[in-house]
């Protein structure tokens, strides 16, 4: 069981591809809003389950804080990954870098705290996309 300081405010960020999530964590009653929508009624179920992962791993800590998250850019699952990272980083910082909690989060998914470095490959000139070329019908 980790001790929670009173009156502490933590701001954490998470990124995935082109999505950026900013989380503000304050002492409270366990309410979580993402872009003004409570997490419990988030419309995309798979994304909602992905966002719940760090909350399940930290135990009852999140029930003593209120979390406001603003996320923009990217797609649905990219935003979910960015929110997940912001939640994990914020809760870890809120309990003053608890070593056991950090170990649990890293063992579950190492990208939850460090981030995923993969990005979209830029399109090359004279092509349809990054790799695809024009087809030739002769030869």
Characterize the structure shown.
- The chain has about 140 residues and is α+β, with helices and mostly antiparallel strands.
- It has one domain (about 10-115): Ribosomal Protein S5, domain 2 (2-Layer Sandwich).
- The chain contains four helices and five strands.
- A five-stranded mixed beta sheet has the order 1-2-5-3-4.
- The protein starts with 9 loop residues before the first strand and ends in a 25-residue tail after the last helix.
- The model has no long low-confidence stretch (mean pLDDT about 90).
Question: What's this entry about, in short?
Answer:
Strand 1 (10-16) and strand 2 (19-27) form a beta hairpin. The termini are far apart.
Termini separation comes to: 71 Å
| CATH topology group | Ribosomal Protein S5, domain 2
> Which spans of ≥5 residues are poorly predicted at pLDDT below 50?
none
Q: Would you identify the CATH architecture? A: 2-Layer Sandwich
CATH class: Alpha Beta
Mean pLDDT: 90
H-E string: EEEEHEHHH
Strand content: 15-25%
Radius of gyration equals 19 Å
Helix content: 25-40%
Protein traits:
alpha+beta; Ribosomal Protein S5, domain 2; five-stranded mixed β-sheet; 4 helices; elongated
List the helices and strands and how they pair.
Blueprint: E1 10-16, E2 19-27, E3 32-34, E4 37-38, H1 45-58, E5 65-72, H2 76-94, H3 99-108, H4 111-114
Parallel strand pairs: 3-5
Antiparallel strand pairs: 1-2, 2-5, 3-4
């Amino acid at each position: 069981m980790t001790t929670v300081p009173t009156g502490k405010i933590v701001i954490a960020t998470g990124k995935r591809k082109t999505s950026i999530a900013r989380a503000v964590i304050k002492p409270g009653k366990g309410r979580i809003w993402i872009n003004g929508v409570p997490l419990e009624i988030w419309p995309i179920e798979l994304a909602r389950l992905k966002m719940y992962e760090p909350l399940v791993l930290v135990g009852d800590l999140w029930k003593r804080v209120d979390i406001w998250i603003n996320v923009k850019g990217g797609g649905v699952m990219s935003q979910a990954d960015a929110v997940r990272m912001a939640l994990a980083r914020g809760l870890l910082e809120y309990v003053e870098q608890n070593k056991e909690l950090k170990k649990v989060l890293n063992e579950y998914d190492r990208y939850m705290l460090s981030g995923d470095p993969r990005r979209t490959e830029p399109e090359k000139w004279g092509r349809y996309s990054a790799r695809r070329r024009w087809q030739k019908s002769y030869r």
